[in-house]
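A protein record in our archive is deliberately plain, so that people and models can read it alike. The tokens are whole numbers drawn from a learned vocabulary of local backbone shapes. For reference, a complete record is included directly beneath this paragraph.
>
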Amino acid sequence: MALFDLPLDELRAYRSRSAEPADFDAFWSQTLEEARAHPLEARFEPVRTGLSTVDVYDVTFAGFGGQPVKGWFVAPAHAAEPLPLLVEFVGYGGGRGLPHTHLLWASAGFAHLVMDTRGQGSGWSVGDTPDEAGSGPAVPGFMTRGIEDPRSFYYRRVFTDAVRAVEAGRAHPLTDAARTVALGTSQGGGITLAVAGLVPDLAAVAPDVPFLCDFPRAIRLTDRDPYREVGRYLNTHRASVDRVTRTLSYFDGVHFAARANAPALFSTALEDQTCPPSTVFAAFNAYAHADKQIEIYDFNGHEGGGPHQEATRLDWLPNHLTPRHPASEDGSPAPSGP
């Protein structure tokens, strides 16, 4: 597949034209306040898997509307001290899958929470969390569910679940909340950016080939799903362009990136027609934290860097995690070390 987006020098300077709603912060503050009115009730049930190097727990916590959301919590076997917490979000159509597919991060010394994505998990990996909220007419998929109003839009529920997933992971006694990382690929990368903008004290984030960024360009540039679901919806609902544009602006990764307060490792692929590189650079260039970098894969599509990007993450993350130290005798925090 030949390059189809902007040249690299233009990508590095590109800025999204996505209009930020005046009440963006108020919308999300109210949304999370409503979710937190429900007890988190994070539960971690041990699971026998036949794996000897990790301990696995079946996770349930209260997400949007207090509705139960599932996940896996995977940690090094017999770990006895607080570990850095890594919360992972899943790509479009997938669910939390099976425990034995999540061994990488526990092997690297993390407590790893994988959030199930409500209503998904029948595409390429299984899921166990229903989406209990209804919506109006929609194109098959998830991009247009409730898209006429930001309060009913599907990703309001998903992004709220994601913030609560971080809170659930931090509630486990094995985790060190000060060393919390969020990461994901594609849809998982877009959810990661939302969490980066909504959770102010993350240690690091790593969105790979992120989806859900720069909607005004994305839905017009590519004819690949999932973005094309929006185009097919508007092909029928011709009078809804302004309403849909307004709704999407509350969920644009560009606006969450502008609020982020953690170091970030992005990636993009220049032949990616599913999440075009300009939409990824739109979020990267808007990202507020000065400590940010982006890996560029010139000859790849939406698979991005694959195992090469995993290796990059493994090398990058330890440099952004400061081990927790006990308090000094007077009760003040001890000096941080490398």
